[in-house]
């Protein structure tokens, strides 16, 4: 089989996988395009033998890929600029009114990746904790830009096992008059139950993840911040 035939087979497999994903989770859940590099990063982060320094380095690489793909979900406007040679160029620029919100603490690991791509972007925070007795998730702290209701929100949370923490965080955003369709959830690893729950509860929200897998690497926050 030649390289052209192999590429055609890969394209057909990706097309079939995309159709299957849409049937399973709807059109607003998207997975980072998978290649060998992405799979290697996911493997390193799941390996119990990965050192903390390596874990943080490769986590930051995967975060950057996920953030950049998440930014593709934001709206752009057309613009015509003049090049140094005096020629006109038809380009694009982000529409104004974007911000990030991290779900503390593990979501803070994604903040630098967002700043590396959008250096002046404003970032809010939400802290969700589980009750020691009832194990129910509750919001204990939230800080947003004053005009967050008028912004597109990139919500950052790397690991989703059940989706309960994210549900609480989105409820707070909606209490601040953020439209569901203006929320883009940026995630690294998600379980099928969490994905199904979120697309069911928030069908207008966009979700971008690197992987949907039955086992989530729940050690992520402890390993990334060195608290394991």
UniProtKB/TrEMBL annotation:
GO molecular-function annotation terms?
glycosyltransferase activity; GTP binding
- UniProtKB keywords: Cytoplasm, Glycosyltransferase, GTP-binding, Nucleotide-binding, Nucleus, Transferase
Question: Which intervals hold domain Phosphoribosyltransferase?
Answer: 34-213
> Gene3D superfamilies per the record?
3.40.50.2020
On the tree of life, the source organism's domain of life is: Eukaryota
For the keyword Plastid, the answer is no
Localized where?
Cytoplasm; Nucleus
Q: Which GO terms describe its cellular component?
A: cytoplasm; nucleus
InterPro entries, per the entry: PRTase-like, PRTase_dom
Keyword check for Glycosyltransferase, yes or no.
yes
The entry assigns this protein to a family as follows:
Belongs to the UPRTase family.
Q: What is this protein called?
A: Uracil phosphoribosyltransferase homolog
Species whose genome carries this gene:
Cotesia congregata
């Amino acid at each position: 089989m030649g390289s052209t035939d192999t590429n055609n087979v890969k394209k057909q497999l990706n097309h079939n996988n995309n159709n299957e994903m849409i049937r399973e989770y709807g059109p607003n859940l998207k997975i980072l395009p998978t290649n060998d590099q992405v799979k290697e990063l996911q493997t390193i982060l799941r390996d119990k033998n990965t050192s903390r320094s390596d874990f943080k380095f490769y986590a930051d690489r995967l975060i950057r890929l996920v953030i950049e793909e998440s930014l593709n979900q934001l709206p752009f406007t057309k613009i015509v600029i003049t090049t140094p040679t005096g020629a006109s160029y038809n380009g694009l620029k982000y529409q104004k009114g974007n911000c990030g919100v991290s779900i503390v603490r593990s979501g803070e690991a994604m903040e630098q990746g967002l700043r590396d791509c959008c250096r002046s972007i404003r970032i809010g925070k939400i802290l969700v904790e589980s009750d020691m007795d009832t194990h129910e998730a509750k919001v204990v702290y939230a800080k947003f830009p004053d005009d967050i209701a008028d912004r597109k929100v990139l919500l950052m949370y790397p690991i989703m096992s059940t989706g309960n923490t994210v549900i609480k965080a989105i409820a707070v955003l909606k209490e601040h008059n953020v439209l569901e369709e203006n929320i883009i959830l940026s995630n690294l690893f998600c379980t099928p139950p969490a994905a199904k729950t979120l697309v069911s509860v928030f069908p207008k929200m966009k979700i971008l993840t690197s992987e949907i897998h039955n086992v989530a690497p729940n050690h992520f926050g402890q390993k990334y911040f060195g608290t394991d």
